[in-house]
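Standup notes, structure subgroup. Blocker cleared on the manganese (II) ion input:
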Amino acid sequence: MDLLTIGAFARVSRLSAKALRRYDELGLLRPAHTDPFTGYRYYDRAQTERARLVAWLRRIGMPLARIREVCDLAETDASAAARQVRAYWAGVEAETAARRDLADFLVDQLSGKDTDPMSQLTTPLTIRYAARSDRGLVRDSNQDVAYAGSRLLAVADGFGAAGDRAGSGAVDALKALETDALGGTAAPPRAGDLLNALEDAVQRANAAVHGLAGSGSGTTLTAMLWTGSRLALVHIGDTRAYLLRDGMFFRITHDHTVVQSMIDEGSLDAEEAASHPQRAMLLRALDGREGIARPDLRLHEAKPGDRYLLCSDGLFAAVPHADIRRTVESAGDPDDAVTGLIALAHGAGAPDNVACVVADVVEEAVPA
Ligand code: MN
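Run returned:
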């Protein structure tokens, strides 16, 4: 064993002596020997590799507890450690993307884009919508909820004994946003007000779920609040939102499921995920359990011609993506689209409840 003093080891590992003492306390990097009388720490030169890995992982901002896991893994299974780093970084990028959207929105708000006289000249936008929820062909009851109004689009997929009330309770909590001051006809709501209102509504929804009899019940929730030019998206669980824009059809929500996180970390591909036995296992939902729900919140600019689809897994898990896409693209109006999508689910045996909302963004007809 080639023992180095803490000072010498600090130099070769490029970690400070202070950091080394802290990593020892945390069990992240234990000295090879600690003198029982003086308390001096000595490190084996062979520990340099682990120390350097710690230093590099600190540079990418990884929390210490997670660094410990990666370092332990690196000693037995380097490729598993590599996947952990990739998964961590995918999470950082997703978080950054969400914050970038929010930052863009705040910049627009603060630079007075809403009061720009030019923007007053553009044709006002409105939405046309349809919503339907269906029991399917196998389940005894329907715990899916689909709702569409002039300001709110929402789907929820309840689970557990009180799943139906969890789903409808969550959507009801958001409906309050349609009628309160935020939904007034005056100036568009400010970004902060809108986000706070959504966040509060989700916490109310979560509290409502908490009050339900029978633990283990809860719901997913994917909803969009229309503000006249923008859509504020709130999402938790594995219900989804898709957007058809300029001939492209893409998903704009991220599933909070175990299999999605496996896809993110590169240990599963999308095709394997579709048949995975635990594909419905949720990482996040409104289950009242954690006290505080952690939904994704996003804001984005709507464009005339946009068509949005909100749906539960009873649609996308049963019906091939290409069929969903074709139906959304070809339907003449939201009602046709919803009818076509429910029919597709039935054609696929409708093993689960199905909820669909389709909304078109259109230029408001100016009265003659
Ligand atoms: Mn379902």
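Discussed briefly. The chain has a mean pLDDT of 86.
Next: hand off to the docking folks.
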